[in-house]
Predict the structure.
Amino acid sequence: MQSRESCALADQQDPLAGFRQQFAIPEGVIYLDGNSLGVLPKTALARSQQVIAEEWGNGLIRSWNSADWFALPTRLGDKLASLLGAAAGEVVVTDTTSLNLFKALAAAVRIQQQAYPTRRVIVSERDNFPTDLYMVQGLIEFLQQGYELRLIDENLSLEQALDEDVAVLLLSHVNYRTAYLYDMAAVTDLAHRYGALTIWDLAHSAGALPVELNAAQADFAVGCTYKYLNGGPGAPAFIWVAARHQDRFWQPLSGWWGHQQPFAMSSDYQPAAGIRRFLCGTQPIVSMALVECGLEIALQADQALLRQKSLALTDLFIELVEQRCGAHPLSLITPREHARRGSHISFRHPQAYAITQALIAAEVIGDYREPEVLRFGVTPLYLSYSDIWEAVERLRQILDSGSWDKPEFHRRSAVT
Ligand SMILES: *Cc1c(COP(=O)(O)O)cnc(C)c1O
């Protein structure tokens, strides 16, 4: 049986407890949305001053060299690589996850056209994050070559979806709604046995749990830096390409930043060797510079300890909800099995939207996802066991009192 005291004791024994003071989190707020927008690293304020006032203000155009702006995408990519089980030279930080997905998809399709000219199926999951499906649909529409998107759902398992027509398998490592976690190595191996290439979307795993891209023999991966990596709103995303694939094709967004010699100003595109060919145009330097602040903190944390704490916190969340909110129609949609669980917890409830708004008004910030889902991001770097206790306590009060049933909590905003 968990209590406020047992949670306080767990905090005292938490080897990661010190990380919280590296972030500026508003007093009184319990932030359970770090899987949508991470919190502010304290160093980001000074770094933004430096980038804007010194590097931009004083350095002006010289800063491309003197502040090493030009190398930011690869320098940050090399740092990030160690969190992804990847090597230096395999990752760039650039563009958005959606755009990087387009590049990865186009590249994977292109490689497969050489290996298996007749394959025309891209497999993904109906429950995948919508942009992933939209980007596949956009590429298919653009190619006009009879490609088809085949979706795994309750009527079609992964095993059933894979066959000799499949060129590419695109999955989210952790599902954005349920937190279902795929076994990356096993699924990649299965896809490879059918001759398909894999693209992993790491939006909800990078920085939240250990990722082992090379050990899993994965082919491509993309992901966000503004979620668990605390890079800041709209911070540039990343793309990883296995070294064995990097030089096999050009990605179609073949802008000058991906050119072998961008400043030769040649009229002919020649892709840079290696991962740099995945760059397109000039990068958002101010935003990108701040990615490093979150990354530096993440790199200090032991990934195994982080995973242990994430599971302990999500276990605690489940246990407390069952213990204290058992009379209410909340149903857990996140897997209980540790090996299949990412780092957030989701419950269905018929009034999930209004309850989410009431929680936010009580300074417990989670979010709502269609349909009827209360979603709570559990970021082990800066949340405590006591935070989870307090969050569930406020949830209990809202449910027991029915205080969620007010007009203002039913009103929908543009961004939910
Ligand atoms: C958050 C998220 C994205 C976001 O893509 P953007 O291009 O940054 O808007 C993509 N895929 C998944 C699975 C996500 O969870």
In short: The mean pLDDT is 98.
